[in-house]
Amino acid sequence: MLMKNLTAAPVPVPIGTLDSLREHLQWAIELEQATLPPYLCALYSLDPERNPEAVAVIGSVFAEEMLHLALAANLLNAVGGRPRLDTPGMLPPYPRRLPHSSLELSLLPFGPQALEMFLRLERPAPPGAPAEGDGYETIGQFYTAVEQGLRHLCEQLGEQAVFTGDPARQVEGTHFRHTSGWLFAVRDLESALGALEEIVEQGEGRDGGEVWDGDQDVFHPERDEVAHYYRLMELKLGRRYQRGDTPRSGPTGEPIFVDLAAVRPMRPDPRLSDHEPGSAVRTAQEEFNRTYCNLLKQLEQAFDGDPKLLGAAVGTMYALKGQAVALMAMPGEDGTVAGPTFDYVPPQSRA
Q: How far is CA 293 from CA 21, 29, 308, in A?
């Protein structure tokens, strides 16, 4: 299993204190949130009737990124931290870098450029790649640093001194729609390593060298589920992975059809300043931003001692979808359509 291999050789521990561990787990929350807007833009730019397979793939990856966000919050709560999402720093303008990394993120419609961005984002760590708690080259290397820090602190301080969080703050028992993933509580080192393993394997595959993530495909129960990186490769190459395929062989299974003509041509990296105040597009963008920031508030409250609010956040997601699709029906002068900007709106301005 992946986590057994991460600490095979002695390496310097970049996370050596509880405060540093809590800081890095807050970074993990920021990292997972930063991926949501790009995936949402790609997802809602797709015509679901003409591109059902691409919608299923991007939608499943987005849902699992939400799961990873929730697991990161459980990890932070478990070690006595407090997850924060409703802050201006959570939503810097796009294009932007992934927090504490050089990986670039943009808001793009689905297509080759978006796929290449997602593939860079989900790229498996190379064999033997070092743990990197800051300035990480792959997400897997960042989580390796977190895993090493957890192990180190438990060895030095004991599990009881590390896992001091209130168990009532854990969000659990939720099956994420469109995925085979489950949200579970983190209360000790074993469950913490399980959460990290879930995050990394769903992103880059089991043991960093398989295309599978260890779950069943929620849409096709007869098939094993493919990790994010390889699901995206299926869309790029137009063919599914099947048993016996490897990262080196590429997918050799049944074809996947993607109709690029059935993609709403959203303007890349939309900005409020592209439109006059009071215009229909800007008004719709501002409404979307208020809704998205309310979603961040609901998620923060759910992870900050009120777990039942996770259900309310799911309802807000449906409102976001309608607003995004409406924006992408608004044509611009250059042949593109409008899109969401994901600007931060202060709480007092959301009424």
A: 26, 15, 18
- Identify residue 51 by its one-letter amino acid code: N
How far, in Å, CA of 337 to CA of 330, rounded? Answer: 5
Which tens digits make up the pLDDT trace of 134-183? 999 999 999 999 999 999 999 999 999 999 999 999 998 764 554 556 78
Taking the CB of residue 158, how many other CB atoms lie within 10 A of it? 10
Ranges of each domain in the chain: 2-263
Residue 233's nearest CA partner among 253, 260, 206 is: 253
Q: What angle do CA 174, 57, 179 make, to 5 degrees?
A: 15
216 C-beta neighbours (distance < 10 Å), count: 13
pLDDT of 232-272, one tens digit each? 999 999 999 988 888 888 899 999 999 999 999 999 999 99
- The dihedrals phi and psi of 282, each to the nearest 5 degrees, come to -65, -40
d(C-alpha 160, C-alpha 107), whole Å: 43
Q: Which CATH architecture has domain 2-263?
A: Up-down Bundle (1.20)
Sign, CA torsion 220/63/186/6 = positive
Residues 6+ apart with CB under 8 A from 327: 281, 284, 285, 288, 337, 338, 339, 340
* Closest by Cα among 151, 140, 154 to 197: 140
pLDDT digits (tens, 9 = 90+) for 21-53: 999 999 999 999 999 999 999 999 999 999 999
Q: What is the pTM of this model?
A: 0.91
